[in-house]
Please model this.
Amino acid sequence: MFGSSRSGTPQNRIDSLVGTGTRVDGHLTFSGGLRVDGEVHGSISSDDAQPGTLVISEQARVEGKISVSHAVINGTVVGPIVATDSLELLPNARVTGDVEYQRIEIQLGAVVEGRLVHQAGTRTQELKLAANG
Model:
């Protein structure tokens, strides 16, 4: 679960907190770890320079797109989720939106109203052709 680190990145470090009773309106970008216990109305993404861990607690609600490397969801998400490494849906998770993941764990009781789309671990590389002459 949250303490595991299959990809070698620290999955148990929380650097930022959106506390209970707090509402954030707008795009939220973080690095390291972010725990949401309140509400976020807008997208959440981790800094592209380093993998990020997002934890959505049981009482939390997010309305917007989530794009992170690792996510642990136990609350409500209304919007698409892109987890480039792994996604954990705990028993109280309620997701309304499409979910893209590389690895996923869904516990009994979690609900997803949307498509589950597996992303391959390989990256697409652009080929450049040299012209003769």
Remarks:
- The two ends are 57 Å apart (CA to CA).
- Residues 16-118 form one domain.
- The chain has a mean pLDDT of 86.
- The first strand starts at residue 16 and ends at 18.
